[in-house]
Write a structure and sequence with these properties.
The chain is an alpha/beta fold. The protein is built from 15 helices and 11 strands. A hairpin with a 4-residue loop joins β8 and β9. α1 runs parallel beside α15. The chain is globular.
């Protein structure tokens, strides 16, 4: 009786999402060992910015003690090209899990895929940078137009964390539906911020105070300007627009409204920015009161209009009864208007940020690849 099939896994990035993913990987490994036929899902490499551990004899690394092993590792930090060469010599199929937002790593995806190594990742930059990189990735992938001998690539968590946004859109397109419009709140940070700044029913604090609160609660990037400039939403919109068939060149090739006052763009740090932001609260208060007079609320949204081949990111007013206005906490909401879902859009809503839910999307993608390789 043949032994279990071995599939090797390498993980790059063990921060918030990476740590959550390792826990889920350990549970998945145990389950796959018990299924019939069994699969031996074997972690052989883990890497963060300054440390690396890898198995020199292809035996499994112990996941529960991995972070400790990384801290104590004396193994050399190989160049990324050397890591890929190492993985390419594994005695079986390999899945690379990229839990970073590193563009250099993303740019190497076509090379990785052509070596037969599959990739699962929440890395938005890989799929929202140049259209050329997007095309190169899918020209190399076995689930794109690449050779069946190449690796597979999945990136569900690059939009909406663990929500099934990308898989839903792909299914709509692949079953022949025509997407006409995509609209939603794509940022957990911006969702939380505007739900606090202008809740349905009135109230809410000053804009600068809500930004500070969002940062203290860990909803924003370490420098809140990385959320407020709108680029995070623009990257997600770029990915969805491309899946819907639009040849969007980059996240800066369509209108993106930044909420950073011009005068504060040159602040030397996020702390200095937060210190000076209250001086500009008047502008946002005016916006809030003008929306309230119309019986509406302000939200930060992204939208794609497929017939006109256009996309935009920015502030918009919504009636209090609109699903986008009624969001709670840091939830995301994405509405697909299509030929089939014309008057009532297909709506996906739920937690759009957080280590565990983002890692769930990555683990789900890993399972897709395992099934394809099995």
């Amino acid at each position: 009786m043949p032994g279990p099939q071995t599939i090797f896994v390498a993980v790059i990035g063990v921060g918030g999402v990476g740590k959550a993913f390792l826990g889920q990987l350990d549970s998945l490994r145990t389950r796959l060992e018990k299924q019939n036929p069994p699969i031996d899902l074997r972690l052989i490499l883990a890497r963060r910015s300054n440390k690396q551990v890898f198995s020199e004899n292809w035996k499994a690394l112990d996941i529960p003690s991995l972070l400790q092993a990384l801290d104590n590792s004396k193994q050399p930090l190989l160049q990324f090209g050397e890591v890929i060469d190492y993985l390419a010599t594994a005695p079986g199929k390999v899945i690379l899990v990229d839990n970073t937002s590193d563009l250099t790593l993303a740019s190497a995806y076509p090379v990785v895929l052509r070596k037969g190594i599959s990739i699962v990742t929440p890395n938005k930059k890989a799929f929202s940078d140049t259209y050329e990189l997007w095309s190169d990735i899918f020209a190399a992938a076995a689930n794109g137009t690449g050779s069946p001998k190449h690796g597979y690539v999945f990136h569900e968590s690059s939009v909406g964390a663990g929500l099934p946004v990308i898989s839903t859109l792909k299914e709509l397109v692949e079953t022949g539906d025509e997407v006409t419009k995509i609209e939603g709140v794509f940022s957990g940070t911006m969702s939380f911020l505007f739900n606090s700044f202008m809740p349905v029913g009135g109230g809410g604090g000053k804009f600068s105070a809500e930004v500070t609160k969002a940062k203290e609660l860990g909803y924003t990037e370490p420098d809140p300007r990385d959320d407020l400039n709108g680029l995070d939403v623009a990257r997600k919109l770029t990915i969805l627009a491309r899946l819907a068939g639009l040849k969007v060149q980059s996240p800066t090739s369509f209108p993106v409204e930044s909420l950073i006052p011009k005068e504060l763009e040159s602040c030397s740090s996020g702390d200095e920015f937060l210190q000076k932001l209250p001086e500009f609260d008047g502008q946002m208060e005016d916006l809030k009161s003008s929306a309230a007079k119309e019986g509406k609320v302000v939200r930060f949204v992204g939208s794609i209009d497929v017939p006109s081949q256009s996309a935009k990111v920015g502030l918009e007013k919504f009636d209090a009864s609109h699903p986008i206005a009624a969001l709670k906490g840091s939830d995301n909401i994405i509405s697909f208007y299509t030929k089939r879902y014309a008057s009532n859009p297909l709506i996906i809503q739920g937690a759009g940020a957080g280590g565990e839910v983002t890692a769930m999307g990555v683990t789900g993608d890993l399972l897709k690849v395992v099934r394809l390789l099995h």
